[in-house]
Amino acid sequence: MTSTRIGVILAGGEGSRLRPLTYYFQKCMVPVGPKQKPLLEYVILNMKKAQLNDIIILVGYKAEQIINYFGEGGRHGVTIRYVYDIPELRGTGGSLLNLYRGGYLKGKDTVLIHYGDILSNINLVELIERHEEGNADATIALSRKYELPVGVAEVVDDRVVSFIEKPSIDLYVSIGILVMNSKIIAELDRLALEKNNLDIMSDFIPYLIKTGKLVKPYLIDAFWYDVGSTEKYEKLTNELVQRYLAELED
């Protein structure tokens, strides 16, 4: 039996770490690469490549910039709907719970959740298939390629004995892309009884693990880049975008 799938993009945040740019832009709409496409366009193009043609964008701050540019998705060969965040449900988890309560996930089995400020050429088809074949409640895309933005020293007694500028750390790092069984999202209602500001990664995923739900990893070696801060945005060169994301434009 073929599962029904939907893509969900988190694009409602104010992007405080990207100020002053986000005084003028929705953070997912900052231009990137030699063609100066909005960051969010690459997320949508990768979903299209994976035949995730049913997409919902969760919007809030400067939502009109997103809606005016992408419309109903016809120009990009997908169907796009928009769900506005509400003040009563804050955070990424609140946005997801608002989506669930609104009935937008009815008839859907698998929900791909993609943070709107993450650029990646991750193979979404393989991620979803791995999730479904493993009968997981949630599957998180993880990378071991994470470079610290600072230098790290080794100190012995009162002496620095080694120093590495911006080393890579050997940890499984979440890249802001995950898949969930749509029914498990109902569990957010229980968490909402305890707090009204819910985060998917720091609240919901730990809750699922603690309550014995099946959370699986999907390890990647694909390109990914968090454009969530001004420093990271300034270091996102045209060459990086051209090298890893140009295939999505074909």
What does this structure look like?
The chain is of the alpha/beta class and about 250 residues long. The protein has a single domain, classed as Spore Coat Polysaccharide Biosynthesis Protein SpsA, Chain A. About 30% of the residues lie in helices and about 30% in strands. The chain is built from eight helices and 15 strands. A seven-stranded mixed β-sheet has the order 5-4-1-6-13-8-14, sandwiched between helices. It has a two-stranded antiparallel sheet with strand order 2-3. Strand 10 and strand 11 form a beta hairpin. Helix 3 crosses helix 6. It is globular, with a radius of gyration of 19 Å. The model has no long low-confidence stretch (mean pLDDT about 85).
Pick out its properties.
single chain, 250 residues, 7-stranded mixed beta sheet
Record the SSE blueprint:
Layout: E1 5-11, E2 31-32, E3 37-38, H1 39-49, E4 54-59, H2 63-70, E5 79-84, H3 91-101, E6 110-115, E7 118-120, H4 124-133, E8 138-143, E9 146-147, E10 152-156, E11 159-164, E12 168-169, E13 173-181, H5 188-192, H6 200-210, E14 215-220, E15 224-226, H7 230-234, H8 238-245
Parallel strand pairs: 1-4, 1-6, 4-5, 8-14
Antiparallel strand pairs: 2-3, 6-13, 7-15, 8-13, 9-12, 10-11
Short characterization:
About 30% of the residues lie in helices and about 30% in strands. With about 250 residues, the protein is an alpha/beta fold. It has a single domain (about 5-145, about 170-250), classed as Spore Coat Polysaccharide Biosynthesis Protein SpsA, Chain A (Alpha-Beta Complex).
